[in-house]
Amino acid sequence: MMKRRYDMNDNKLYIAQLHKVIERCDFLEELENKSILITGATGMVGTCMIDLLQEYDTLKHANIGIVAIARNGRHMQETFDRYADKANLVCVVGDVNQSMPQTGKIDYIIHAASNTHPLAYASDPIGTIQTNVLGLKNLLDFAAEKKVKRMVFLSSVEIYGENRGDAERFAEDYCGYLDCNTLRAGYPEGKRVGEALCQAYRKHYGLDIVIPRLSRLYGPTMRMSDTKAISQFIKKAAAGEDIVLKSGGNQLYSYTYVVDAVSAILHILCKGKDGEAYNVSDMDSEITLKDLAGILADEAHTRVIFDLPDEQERQGYSSATKALLDAGKLEKLGWSADTGFNEGLTTTLSSISLKYSRSILNL
């Protein structure tokens, strides 16, 4: 008998982690009987956000309406087929860079659409900038028209640029060096302009906007096309292959498990102050690339191999050697990470390994 395609619900630990967030976040009652528009719905964050909201809706009968927007119809169907019987989820194939769909009342917007990995930066530099500027402008116009209660623009650790050696961790008022005259600069500069555009719309239209600045993320909802270092390491480990490092691996970064990141975004959505940016980072998950590669290689019983990147790969890579976020401001809203680094990696590896096994069997 042919087995069915991989379903995120197969990962019971992941579902339990979503339930833990729901139990902690009593403020989610504010979202009941409300409608939320989520762009980038099939990305790592968008998928996890919709999973959590659907679990909450099922457990609490919350009547949360979700409008999910993504560009790829096949990815949309594959990702959310398990919710085919859920009337509260409306999936729309569309590109926010072009136009916004016709919808009913929208209370909240979460702009999670963006190229977020090196190959995309290098191969689609124009689209990388457009989604964070033009796509955001279209959403802001839409938000003003719909008179939404609040909009969330997902920004990034990348806006801080390179550490100038004067800060152990980046606080929200830090601004490091960023060379704008490079191909890769389209992503961090796009996020910087996006944040400024949000402030302009707050002033002109009175929109209520909050800005989570995400650290490097990982988790079971990552797309298999993701080329971030941690994503490549996880895919190699899941496939039982040697892990390839494209540098000496001494870069020290902050990481956050995607379920914790979604929990943070919801804290900011419901409890954050209008106009403020908040760092999202699990400060107990700070590790060098070579140590991260070593942990995953040990799990997979494989090796770490050092290999220099080709020219296209190099153009997409960050030159930052240390990027740690100070999440103290967010923690004052009551947020903290629930998932330890080892648990997060185990959950992610389990999901990606199952995706590989079923892909190999063409199931």
Judging from the principal axes of the Cα atoms, what is the shape? Answer: globular
Please count the helical segments.
12
Q: Helix content range of the residues, please? A: 40-55%
CATH topology of the domain at 8-217 and 257-282 and 325-338: Rossmann fold
Query: Element order, helices and strands?
Result: HEHEHEEHHEEHEEHEEHEEHEHEHH
Low-confidence parts: none
Report the C-alpha radius of gyration, rounded.
19 Å
Structural class: alpha/beta
Specify the oligomeric state: single chain
Amount of beta strand: 15-25%
Largest sheet: 8 strands, parallel
What is the fourth-level CATH superfamily of the domain at 8-217 and 257-282 and 325-338?
Answer: NAD(P)-binding Rossmann-like Domain
Cofactor: NAD(+)
Keywords: Decarboxylase, Lyase, NAD
Protein name: NAD-dependent epimerase/dehydratase family protein
Pfam families: Epimerase
Overview of this protein structure:
The chain has 363 residues and is an alpha/beta fold. The chain has a domain at 8-217 and 257-282 and 325-338: Rossmann fold. The protein contains twelve helices and 14 strands. Helix 3 (73-80) links the parallel strand 2 (65-70) and strand 3. Helix 2 (44-60) packs across helix 8 (258-271). Its cofactor is NAD(+). It comes from Kineothrix sedimenti. InterPro entries: Epimerase_deHydtase (IPR001509), NAD(P)-bd_dom_sf (IPR036291), UXS-like (IPR044516).
